[in-house]
Amino acid sequence: MKKVIKTTLFLSFLATLTSCDLVDHVEHRARVLNSLEDKVLVLNKENQHLRNEIMQLKYKLKTVESRNFYLETQLENKGKPAQRTLASVRKVSPDDLVKFDVYKWKPEQMLAIAEKEFDSKNYEKSAQFFNEFSNHFPNNKSKDDKFLFQAGVASFETGKHYQWSEKYFKDLVERYPTSKFYLGSKLWLGMSYLKQGKEKEFF
After folding, report:
1. Residue ranges per domain, the chain?
2. CA 111 to CA 51: how far, in whole Å?
3. Non-local CB neighbours of 184 within 8 Å, separated by 6+ positions
4. What are phi and psi of 143, to 5 degrees?
5. Which one is the CATH code of 91-203: 3.40.30.10, 1.25.40.10, 3.40.910.10, 1.10.10.60?
6. pLDDT tens digits, the chain, 203 residues: what are they?
7. Considering the entire predicted model, what is its pTM?
C-alpha cells in the first residue's frame, strides 16, 4: 500500500514538473514571437524610410540629368542664331514643380512624391503632383478615396487651387458615400465653394 502511495505521489510530482516546464516553454515561445513581431515592425519602418530616400534620390538624379541635358543643348547651340536657339529649347514654366514632360514620371513615383510632400506640408508641390497624376493617369487604381481626399486638402491649402479641391472633394462625395473621408470632404467642399464665391452651391 505504501508503495502505491509513493508511486502516486511521485507521478503527481512528475506531472507538476512537466506542467511547469510546459508553461515555461509556452511563455518562452510567446516572448520570442513578440520579439520577432517588434523586429518586423522596425524593419518595415526602416524599409519605408529607405523607399522614401530612394524616391528622393531618383528625383535628384532626374534633376541633374535635366540640368545636364539643358547645358549640353546650350553648348550644341552655341554660336547659332539666337532665334534658332530659343526655338530648340522647350520653355518650362518656373511655377511647374512637376515637369512631367522632362522627367517622364511613372505613376508610383508621382504618387510617392505627392504623399511625401503632403506629409511635409509642402502643399503646392503635393497638389501639383496629385493634379498631374490625375491628368496623366486618370484610370489608375490608386485614385481611391484617400487619394482624392489628400489631393483636395493639398489643393485647398495652397490658397489658390480651389477649383482643384472642389473637383476632388466633389468626386469623392459622389463616388464614395461610405468612405471615412465622406463627411470631412463635404465640409472641405463647402469651404472650396465659399473661397470661389459660390454661395449657392454652399447653401
Report:
1. 1-89, 91-203
2. 13
3. 149
4. -80, 65
5. 1.25.40.10
6. 555 555 555 555 545 545 555 556 556 666 766 666 676 667 777 766 776 667 666 555 555 554 555 455 556 555 555 444 334 444 556 789 999 999 999 999 999 999 999 999 999 999 999 999 999 999 999 999 999 999 999 999 999 999 999 999 999 999 999 999 999 999 999 999 999 999 888 76
7. 0.57
